[in-house]
Amino acid sequence: MKSLFHHELICWCSFIAILLQHVSSVNLPNNETVPAVFVFGDSLVDPGNNNYITTIIKCNFPPYGRDFQGGNPTGRFSNGVVPSDIIAEKFEVKKILPAYLDPNLQLQDLLTGVSFASGGAGYDPLTSKIMSVKSLSDQLEWFKEYKKKMEEAVGRKNMTLIISKSIYIVCIGSDDIANTYAQTPFRRVQYDIPSYTDFMASKASKFLQELYEEGGRRIGVFNIPVIGCVPSQRTLNGGLFRECSNTSNNAARLFNTKLYFKMKTLQRNYSDAKFVYLDCYNPFMEMIQNPSKYGFNETKKGCCGTGNIEVGILCNRFSMNTCSNPSDYVFWDSYHPTEKAYYALSTLVLDNKIKDFF
């Protein structure tokens, strides 16, 4: 029975490898192939891992997922797909990137990649502890577990090939600034913003080195977006007129500069890898400042409820006044963009960077 199972796994692997070789060579540079996409991060790229852990940071209930495959609330923090899905599609691997903890995962799902992201996580380990979610260290342990499963299934050689040729995306850090630093006293007594962003950048660099040591070679890292302009930050820190929080945005920009230089150093030290810095801060600011250019009308409120504060469990089927036209909105809830905004932003950030992964 066991040998038959292994035979099925190997057949699946061979089939998918052939299929991907045929498909991926269409638009990717130099006839390159991408067997799988792996994503690490927070709620922006969590497709539902938090459904299977004990935390209040969940969204596996309506109206989340209202526009996702028949209105299915999968645990994605949006009305539809999230960037992890869009990225897998852009690299021509698959249209939906599943959660690693999804008990319904099939072999082909594993072979072509998963998201290990956990909503509420941060570079700062304290961020994950406060939210009772899975830290980057936990996510890396899941990746090691994944590698063992793949080695058992398809052999060490095939597993190593999948790992070395795959795309790795890291998208995290917003919660460190918006929640841990801005909303709790724990880090403010230890750090000012320059030293806290130093701490974050050192954690980011350490994680990227660990990912390299585990075999990752094509690694893209999103910087922190304009976190001070999300509706909840406007409500909490934007004053009477709900302006963008300059404090949060300045902290994000400071961290982003440090992340950029950390990645430059990693690129020099590991010349056999590609470390691709993905700037979403400036494109997102452009979308917020010029919404009509991208087909949006509302930038200061989310679609869910009042749009000023609802997120996660506060955004639910009983939320009054949830909009009927999310495509007019940049934000779905008070913290996360709509599917349409994610598509627009992913195009602005990724399309001219795909070549840099190869």
TrEMBL record:
<dbReference type="GO" id="GO:0005576">
    <property type="term" value="C:extracellular region"/>
</dbReference>
<dbReference type="GO" id="GO:0016788">
    <property type="term" value="F:hydrolase activity, acting on ester bonds"/>
</dbReference>
<protein>
    <recommendedName>
        <fullName>GDSL esterase/lipase EXL3</fullName>
    </recommendedName>
</protein>
<dbReference type="InterPro" id="IPR035669">
    <property type="entry name" value="SGNH_plant_lipase-like"/>
</dbReference>
<dbReference type="InterPro" id="IPR050592">
    <property type="entry name" value="GDSL_lipolytic_enzyme"/>
</dbReference>
<dbReference type="InterPro" id="IPR001087">
    <property type="entry name" value="GDSL"/>
</dbReference>
<comment type="similarity">
    <text>Belongs to the 'GDSL' lipolytic enzyme family.</text>
</comment>
<keyword id="KW-0732">Signal</keyword>
<dbReference type="InterPro" id="IPR036514">
    <property type="entry name" value="SGNH_hydro_sf"/>
</dbReference>
<dbReference type="Pfam" id="PF00657">
    <property type="entry name" value="Lipase_GDSL"/>
</dbReference>
<feature type="signal peptide">
    <location>
        <begin position="1"/>
        <end position="25"/>
    </location>
</feature>
